[in-house]
Design a protein that fits this description.
The complex is a heterodimer. Chain A is of the alpha/beta class. Chain A contains eight helices and six strands; from the N terminus they run αααββαβαβαβαβα. Chain A has a four-stranded parallel sheet. A two-stranded antiparallel sheet of chain A has the order 1-2. In chain A, helix 1 packs across helix 2. Chain B folds into two domains: 75 residues, Beta Barrel (OB fold (Dihydrolipoamide Acetyltransferase, E2P)), CATH 2.40.50.140; 176 residues, de novo design (two linked rop proteins) (Up-down Bundle). In chain B, helix 1 packs antiparallel against helix 6 and helix 2 packs antiparallel against helix 3. The chains are: A alpha/beta, B alpha+beta. At the A-B interface, helix 6, helix 7 and helix 8 of A face strand 5, helix 1 and helix 6 of B.
Chain lengths: 200, 257
C-alpha cells in the first residue's frame, strides 16, 4: 500500500492538529510547502521554532510580548490613567487599529462561561484587581464583547472592581451598527440603542 | 433547498471558521436542531442576536445534507437580566445545559419547550433561583418518565403521608409500612414531599410562594440531585461554575475586608 514518506506524513499530522484544519486541508498545505522554494520553507520552520521562546506574555497586561513587557505597557507615552479590559489579545489589536485609544490594556484570557466551565480563577481577574490597586486608574473600560458571556463577565468585573474601590467603570456604547436598517435590528440591540441615546 | 420555520431557544454555539457558528437550538416544533449560522462575528449580522444563549426567536432554516443552515431569525425575547447577574446567568446556563444533554434532534417535546420558556422568564425576575432550577429539572424528568413518584409509595401504591424513605433507583418514595428500616434509603419529611409537589404543580412565576426552611431545602435538593445524577450522566458544568464564582467572590470579599 502506498504511503506518504514519513517526514511528509508528520507535517500533515501536525497541521491537522491546528484549529480549522481538516485532513484534506493539511494535505493541501503540506503539498504546497513541498512545492515552495526550500529557503522559504526553512524560513517558515525557523519562525515556528522561535515562536514559543520569542513570544511571551506581558507581565503587566498579559498581552503577547517579546520581553517582560508588551509594546503598550513599555511605552511611556501611553495614558496610564486609562485601563481597557478585553478578553483576548486580538480584541486589544482591534482597538489599536481604530487608532484613537491611548491608554493601557488588560487581557483577561477569555470570558466567564458556565457552559464551558470557565470560572474567575481561569482568567486574569485576580491580577486585574491587583493591578488597579497599584495603578489607581481614573477609568476602567470593560470592553468585552456585547454577547451573553461578554456582558455577564463585564457585570462580574464591575462588582469586583467596585468592591476594590474603583468608582469610574465604563463600558463601550452599544447600539445600532453603522449602515444598519432599523427594521432589521433585533430586540436586544434596539433596547440598548435606546437606553444609550444621546442628546443632539 | 427546502426550508422550514420553528420557534426556538438557543442552547449554545461553537465557532466554525472565522465568522460562522454551529448553533444548537431547542425548538417547539422539532426538538433539538443543530444548524450553521454564517457571518455571525461581523457587525450588522442579522442573525447574531439569535445565536446568543437563552434567546427565544422565530427561526427559518434551510435543510442541508449534514447540517441545516439558519437563514432568518427574529428575536422574540432576549432575557436581558440573565446577562446582568452572574447567578441568573449560571442558573440559566444550567437549564440550557440540562436541556441539551437530555433532548434529541427531531423529537419535539412541546411541554418541555414551554417549561423552558417559562423558567427562563421566571429566572429573569425571581429571587429564589434554585427553586426555578429544581422545578425545571423535575418537569424535564417528568417528560422523560423519570421524575420521582411523589404521590404514592412505589412499593404498595398507598398515598404518601408523613415521613418516607427515598432512593433514586426505586423511582420515588417508600412508605414506613413497606419499610420500617432505612435499608440504605434517605429519610425525607412530609414537608419536603409537599415542597416537591409544589415544584411540579406551581407555575414558574409563582414558585416564590414556596417558603422552605433550610432543612426542607436540603432534603429537596438531595432528592432532586439523586434523581438527576441517576438519570443524567456527568456533572452539570454550570452548577460547578456557580461554585467557582461563589468561592472566588468569597475570597475577594475576604481579601478586601
Amino acid at each position: 500500500m502506498l504511503r506518504y514518506p514519513r517526514p511528509l506524513q508528520r507535517v500533515i499530522e501536525e497541521l491537522e492538529r491546528l484549529p480549522g484544519i481538516g485532513p484534506k486541508s493539511a494535505q493541501r498545505l503540506a503539498f504546497a510547502l513541498l512545492k515552495r522554494n526550500p529557503a522559504d520553507v526553512r524560513a517558515l520552520g525557523e519562525a515556528l521554532v522561535a515562536l514559543p521562546e520569542a513570544v511571551t506574555r506581558c507581565q503587566e497586561c498579559f498581552n503577547y510580548a517579546e520581553g517582560e513587557l508588551c509594546a503598550v505597557c513599555a511605552d511611556p507615552g501611553r495614558d496610564r490613567r486609562l485601563l481597557c479590559v478585553v478578553a483576548e489579545p486580538a480584541d486589544a489589536m482591534a482597538i489599536e487599529r481604530a487608532n484613537d485609544y491611548r491608554g493601557l490594556y488588560h487581557i483577561l484570557g477569555g470570558l466567564l462561561s458556565p457552559l464551558d466551565g470557565i470560572g474567575p480563577d481561569d482568567l486574569t481577574i485576580a491580577q486585574l484587581v491587583d493591578r488597579v490597586s497599584r495603578l489607581q486608574p481614573a477609568e476602567v473600560i470593560l470592553a468585552t464583547s456585547p454577547s451573553v458571556e461578554g456582558d455577564a463577565t463585564a457585570e462580574y468585573l464591575r462588582q469586583v472592581l467596585a468592591a476594590a474601590g474603583i468608582s469610574n467603570i465604563t463600558r463601550p456604547a452599544l447600539g445600532l451598527p453603522v449602515g444598519a436598517e432599523l427594521d432589521y435590528a433585533d430586540q436586544v440591540t434596539l433596547v440598548r440603542a435606546l437606553q444609550g441615546r444621546r442628546a443632539m | 433547498m427546502p426550508t422550514y420555520n420553528a420557534t426556538g431557544i438557543t442552547l449554545g454555539a461553537h465557532k466554525y471558521g472565522d465568522a460562522a457558528r454551529v448553533v444548537t437550538f431547542f425548538t417547539r416544533e422539532r426538538g433539538k436542531v443543530e444548524a450553521t449560522a454564517r457571518g455571525i462575528g461581523k457587525p450588522g449580522s442579522k442573525l447574531a442576536a439569535a445565536v446568543e444563549p437563552f434567546t427565544l426567536s422565530r427561526l427559518q432554516f434551510a435543510e442541508g445534507r449534514d447540517l441545516d443552515r439558519l437563514t432568518q431569525a427574529e428575536v422574540l425575547q432576549g432575557y436581558v437580566p440573565l446577562r446582568q447577574d452572574m447567578r441568573r446567568y449560571a442558573y440559566g446556563a444550567a437549564l440550557l445545559e440540562l436541556t441539551a444533554l437530555t433532548t434529541e434532534p427531531g423529537q419535539a417535546v412541546p411541554d418541555l419547550f414551554e417549561a423552558l420558556v417559562a423558567a427562563l422568564a421566571a429566572l429573569a425576575g425571581a429571587t429564589d433561583l434554585e427553586l426555578i432550577f429544581w422545578a425545571y429539572t423535575l418537569r424535564l424528568l417528568q417528560t422523560q418518565g423519570n421524575a420521582p413518584e411523589i404521590e404514592h409509595c412505589v412499593h404498595c401504591g398507598a398515598r404518601i403521608t408523613g415521613q418516607v424513605w427515598h432512593l433514586a433507583v426505586e423511582g420515588g418514595f417508600v412508605c414506613r409500612d413497606c419499610s420500617p428500616q432505612s435499608n440504605g434509603r434517605a429519610q425525607v419529611s412530609g414537608a419536603a414531599v409537599g415542597a416537591l409537589r409544589g415544584l411540579v404543580t406551581l407555575p414558574f412565576d409563582r414558585l416564590d410562594r414556596l417558603s422552605l426552611s433550610q432543612g426542607v431545602r436540603r432534603e429537596v435538593g438531595r432528592v432532586i440531585r439523586a434523581h438527576l445524577s441517576y438519570h443524567v450522566s456527568g456533572e452539570l458544568r454550570s452548577l460547578a461554575f456557580l461554585d467557582k464564582v461563589s468561592r472566588a467572590k468569597g475570597r475577594s470579599d475576604a481579601d478586601l475586608s
